[in-house]
Amino acid sequence: MNQTFSQPLFEKVPIVGILRNYPDQHMQRLAESYAQAGLTTLEITMNTPGAAKTIASLVKKMGKQLNIGAGTVCSLKDLEQALDAGAQFVVTPITDDAVIEECVANKIPIFPGAFTPSEIYKAWSLGASMVKVFPASKLGPDYIKEVNAPLNQIKLMPTGGISLDSMLGFLRAGAKGFGIGSQLIPKQLVENGDWIALTAHFSEFVKKYNGFLNENH
After folding, report:
1. Residue 2 in domain
2. Number of domains comprising the chain
3. Structural domain boundaries, residue 172
4. Is the pTM of this model over 0.90?
């Protein structure tokens, strides 16, 4: 089982696709479409039924093409289940010292959720790989820009309500990555098994990110 997170793969397109309560029978095909479009990092939330089994299956089959991680990790118990399943990275909705410290000790990338500048700084100080600013849609790009001014050493990953249209604003404000759920992975396309449309939809996010890179290099 490949439990090694690939930083170069993540940095290629630093978007974490969030899977919460998606049909398990479609997970393999979804992951294949995701990789085919050029996306690199998928998060399965631990409050999804059968999450550990899904993580283990995807890591086994796609762990060299994609970073497969566990989200909504709120406790050491959640973390143990996630790591036993082979999760290559961990995402939390909150800043929990014990979870962050355990991930750092085990060299597992951790993206903890934080809201205020104090929470963001604390999460980073504890060893976060990036700090998930959540919920980002309520804060907007200006918040990221303002936090970045004094805390520019911290890598911020806005999450919650990010869309294809709003991505550029957050990138220009200094975001270093994103966590995106239903806007990136429309459940209807997955349930209908419309893999061609889904791959095309995924590709739009890759094009948008690459367009930003071309603008700024």
Report:
1. no
2. 1
3. 7-215
4. yes
